[in-house]
Here is the input.
Amino acid sequence: MAKRKTQTSTDTQVSAAAETTTTVTVPVASEPIPETSVVQPVSDDSLALSSQPEGGAYSRFSDFDIYLFRSGKHSRLYEKFGSHVIEHQGVVGTYFAVWAPSAKYVAVIGNFNGWNKGAHPMGVRWDGSGIWEIFIPHIGRGEVYKYFIVHESGRELEKGDPYAHTWEVPPLTASVVWDNWHEWTDQEWMQTRQAKNALTAPFSVYEVHLSSWRRDPSDPERELSYGEIADALVPYVQDMGFTHVEFMPVMQYPYAPSWGYQITGYFAPSSKFGKPQDFMTLVERLHNAGIGVILDWVPSHFPGDAHGLFEFDGSHLYEHPDMRKGYHPDWKSYIFNYGRPEVRSFLISNALYWLDRYHVDGLRVDAVASMLYLDYSRNHGEWEPNIFGGRENLEVISLFRELNETIYREFPDVQTIAEESTAFPGVSRPVYTGGLGFGMKWMMGWMNDSLRYFQRDPGYRKYHQDEFTFSAVYAFTENFMLPLSHDEVVYGKKSLINKMPGDEWQRFANLRLLFAYMFTHPGTKLVFMGGEFGQLREWKYDISLDWHLLNEPSHQGIAACVKALNHLYRSEPALHERNFQADGFEWIDTADRENTIISYMRKGENPADNVVIVLNMTPIPRFNYRIGAPAAGTYEEIFNSDNVGYYGSGVGNAAPIVAENQAWQGREYSMEITLPPLAAVVFKSTQTP
Here is the structure.
């Protein structure tokens, strides 16, 4: 790590500082001292003093806090650790607290003391918790700092604050004293969001990578700020009809090619795009537009950056000391010690922090499978079985259960979503039934089977109908979300549109058909940015999406189709009321392999809301095609992916269709319909005799 020019500390100052209790402050002219307006009020609850040897030394920790922290049960550590601007004994300053049990010396260094390692030594608590504390007068919001830590062995480290609210902009690596104060204006959303986030509500998620969703058109290298992103993103998502936005990791990360998945500052939104309050405003503006916010959360691993969590106090503090459990071979990163109580408190507190201080509506937990299995990406002999001889990580299972119980107890109106790619049972089932307690789980099987099927030449799809329909076999074993995520459009996998076979028209028709199938299949939905308008190239983390494509009719058609599907999904109760109930879905016919046509029904609480979906998987239009009807009555086409407004051919069913008393496909009534090429049509009964 490159040292700053202002840093003048020496090893002799460390030993000298250990012999003095005098607090020395060296103000720097460029750093303003804090104003009263940014001082956080201090209550007796937040400053409960425990019996301490120095008698009255300032601390935010009570004995009960220490007990909870060391038991792995503390869920609000962000109120205790880190830097907090307060007024103490009539003096404005900043309180610092850090966990470093293997350190023999810890000091706060920064611009305010010329990076002098001996200027502000911290005191270790008497109770064996390994927590170091100090109150430094006359420094406040905006001060840059790190912790200088000397391990018992004499090894010296300079670390950022694990609980920092914000950081310097990369490549700089210091933490910054800040606060979470914000005048929220999203009260209406917060009071009503339980209905919007419910499992029976429409839940259509737009996945966004902040750095590459859109950039400055006049300077493509410049990333937009949180405010600039809000100006464009909020109206766009609102117009497209998505119910939620999911941000790929926004927490502080130094390495752009990691896409945000290698985090050094778990309690800070990325400083590349602005300050914490700027991100709060982005969340608030989405809420005020009726859009929920999900954050990608990464408890699965962290990087080995010198200023980060790895070997934080010179020991394996946050990571597991056994590299069979503490090192991730795929990502060359480190794995949390999930059995260490203090680390569990850190992770649970971090999850609640974003729900509490940033009003987010849910967390999508990354790489759950890599956490659940001790042998994940490891060969024989490279992993250690659990106490029962199995490969399941029992510490992770208990952590997830405690995490989800804590979240839903304190925030019953949010959702936790697991990216879990195996058949581990009960991921989205309640803890009291033996499940992990997540609200939803990604349906990776549906995604893999669907993309494989749609990449086949339509003439050969008839040989793979079982592959296409297999998802219905297990669709209701979990609360599934159907993902077409960022992982499917990178590393040579091609963009969604370029996965599709055929000429240009057929590729766009196939993609519209895929989206229609997705939005009418049981489960909530997730679409990665760019897919909704047919982005041609693969996603690149450092380049804006190709928004100019929306000048082309074909891409306009994809966007219009997705917008219409969002409207259909939100307005038709049958498509979301029973998303996770088997009685909300029923096959009509899967046996017409020769014509490669599939039909099914989605059911609402009210039978009058039921809809019929028919998919034509070939480019051959079918006229006078008979399907079984759910009941007698008149049916109207309420969606057709071949609509000319979607760049389709316009083949369809303009006139109402009367179901006839003619048995077909095991049903008493049936009707003759027109099926457009490579298209989905949706019918709804408008009149019952």
Residues 201-575 form a domain with the TIM Barrel fold (CATH 3.20.20.80).
